[in-house]
Amino acid sequence: TLGCLLSPEDVDTTKLAIRLVDGANQCSGRVEVLHNDVWGTVCDDQWDLREAKVVCRQLGCGTAVSAPRESKYGEGKGQIWLSDVNCKGTEASLAECEAKPWGDNVCNHVEDASVECSGTEIPEPGPIRLVGGPNRCAGRVEVLHEEQWGSVCHDDWDLNDAQVVCKQLGCGDAVLAPIGAKFGRGFDTIWLDDVNCTGVEAALSECPARPWGEHNCYHGEDASAVCSDSGITVSTSVRLVGGPNRCSGRVEVLHNDVWGTVCDDQWDLREAKVVCRQLGCGTALSALPESKYGEGKGQIWLSDVNCKGTEASLAECEAKPWGDNVCNHVEDASVECSEVDVPEGGPVRLVDGPNKCAGRVEVLHENRWGSVCDDHWDMKDAEVVCKQVGCGSPLSALGGARYGRGPDVIWLDDVECNGTEESIFDCQARPWGEHNCYHGEDADVVCTGN
């Protein structure tokens, strides 16, 4: 059986360097991976086209043509690092596939695995697009190079860079420059890193950056852009005021360091769902118009808010520009959320995965759901979580927000379980809410149950 998963904590693309050796070009040859600063080969046990697809994708070499076994491109020397590698074929990096622990194998170099990729050779940089967002003016930034779409790493990514993207696409001005794969992780190569635009360039390809394909990133660091023509608002802070508890009341959002209300025009249960989700307050019970929880004062920041109901934050919903409305405070919108009280210590849940036994780890503290940072996250921690949620044993302990970024607080960091604890709350960790993380580092778990 497969003994571990190469989690991003251990081997993201900054640490799991990969290369093809002794082939006709950089896109064919014997597979070698870097571990502890030493290159080593991969045993061909279970090696097939699915693993080859991932290698080709990671190297930006197109699609896999074949997955030769038995040292077709010669026998390597030294370490045989990986064996029984098992990919689905859709992963962005070999780091995301299951395998035996490093160096644990009974192979010899006659069994070295190889790969042959389709490769492409068109040097001209191509167009740009935003994907994974609500419309063509918001999403993950992807650029076309050598006939292949690829993402942009978020190192040094800021509003100046996003401004160039928005201008290039004819989408108005940049509103946000999200980092940490806000609109999902890319599936192919990472083309650009350390992009540094001034904001006046006509195209992203005119901005200083590392050479094409040269980076120290993984897809959890994909850069995004939100342009003004997308209709997405910028507010990321929201609160409920004047209600009986923190999960019901008048909706207020923060803009330019000033709290203001939301007009009830078009306000319904879809918007309420997003507010409740963002606050970690369960599901929406009602979306109340006409200042049910009292009239606010000062600014009315938002009007005609239009959510699908699935967004993680109000920031992802359409709305009129800030302060653009003909409302008064009699029309202030309110929300009532379910906010289920739970036993002392609070539960743990796995969310946004394919079933209840796989997903992002969230814990409840002070009646508020929050995520766990992936620093030091490993199989011992996953062992405790899987047991606590009644899902058997862990298959993998993932980092890098594999199942999406949490919308609210990060409650735990530097969790260190020994695997025998009854609850994650019994494990060593930093104090509640103390961390040095962002939601691109949310921890995930896959358990044997479903």
TrEMBL record:
PROSITE patterns linked: SRCR_1 (PS00420), SRCR_2 (PS50287)
Pfam families with a match to the protein in the record: SRCR
Primary subcellular site in the record, as a coarse category: secreted
One of the GO biological process terms: zymogen activation
Domain of life: Eukaryota
Subcellular location: Secreted
Disulfide-bonded cysteines: 43-107, 56-117, 87-97, 153-217, 166-227, 197-207, 263-327, 276-337, 307-317, 373-437, 386-447, 417-427
Every SRCR domain range: 18-118, 128-228, 238-338, 348-448
Example GO molecular function: serine-type endopeptidase activity
Any single GO CC term annotated in Swiss-Prot or TrEMBL for this entry: plasma membrane
Subunit-structure text: Interacts with LGALS1 and laminin.
Function recorded in the entry: Binds to extracellular matrix proteins. Binds to pathogen-associated molecular patterns (PAMPs) present on the cell walls of Gram-positive and Gram-negative bacteria and fungi, behaving as a pattern recognition receptor (PRR). Induces bacterial and fungal aggregation and subsequent inhibition of PAMP-induced cytokine release. Does not possess intrinsic bactericidal activity. May play a role in the innate defense and homeostasis of certain epithelial surfaces.
Stated name of the protein: Soluble scavenger receptor cysteine-rich domain-containing protein SSC5D
Natural source organism: Mesembrinibis cayennensis
